[in-house]
Amino acid sequence: MADAAPARAAGRSSAFGSRYEDWKEAPDERWRQRFQNPRILNLIAVLDGTPVAMAGGMLGERIELISMWVAPEARGAGVADALIRAVEAWTAPLAPELWLSVMPENATAIATYARNGFEHVDETGDPLPHGPGHELLMRKLLDRSGRS
Ligand SMILES: CC(C)(COP(=O)(O)OP(=O)(O)OC[C@H]1O[C@@H](n2cnc3c(N)ncnc32)[C@H](O)[C@@H]1OP(=O)(O)O)[C@@H](O)C(=O)NCCC(=O)NCCS
User: 22-48: per-residue pLDDT in tens?
Assistant: First the structure.
């Protein structure tokens, strides 16, 4: 995705723009900036007391869903759906739509996003970090009727 997650299990190129290896030696200041940035939402999902997933939102020209990762043992249980709903709730008072970018070969993630109402956008995403091609862009128009 556009902003990278420090997720060890994310693999080299099918999910994220950067890898755990890119962050594990990062100075404290870089981590602090990442987690104290008021324009970035950081979420952790906890199952039976154990953190099993993460996701976030990033406020820029658009608001993007970022850093979606669910531990393998927690997949297939709707954890991603719950995180997406939480990022949507954070976004709705701020913007009418939520964007994301996803690697074109990441069929599982694309299916999860499509099931949650995201649609492909006919716009070229960022170049892939490790080869030819571009990220796919998806967007969801949010229901803002219930926002306070
Ligand atoms: C994409 C991802 C976030 C989906 O998370 P999730 O909580 O498993 O999402 P869902 O519960 O909606 O499951 C997604 C699909 O994968 C299937 N699935 C994936 N792994 C599974 C597992 N270990 N056991 C059972 N089902 C699994 C689910 O059945 C579901 O299929 P369906 O849509 O046909 O029902 C997760 O697979 C993941 O973290 N992948 C690696 C990181 C990644 O690609 N992040 C996205 C970057 S854009």
Answer: 888 899 998 898 889 999 999 999 998
Ligand 1: list residues with CB < 6 Å: 1, 10, 15, 68-70, 72, 75-81, 102, 106, 108-109, 111-112, 115
Q: Which of 3, 108, 136, 137 to mutate to test the pocket of ligand 1 (most atoms within 8 A of CB)?
A: 108
Q: Which atom of ligand 1 is nearest to the CA of 72?
A: 23
State the Cα–Cα distance between residues 34 and 95, nearest whole angstrom: 22
Give CA torsion, residues 135, 101, 117, 113, to 10 deg: 80
- Residue 8 in contact with residue 18, Cβ under 8 Å? no
Q: Is 148 contained in some domain?
A: no
- State how many domains the chain has: 1
Q: Is residue 115 part of a domain?
A: yes
Pocket test residue of 43, 47, 75 for ligand 1, highest count of atoms within 8 A of CB: 75
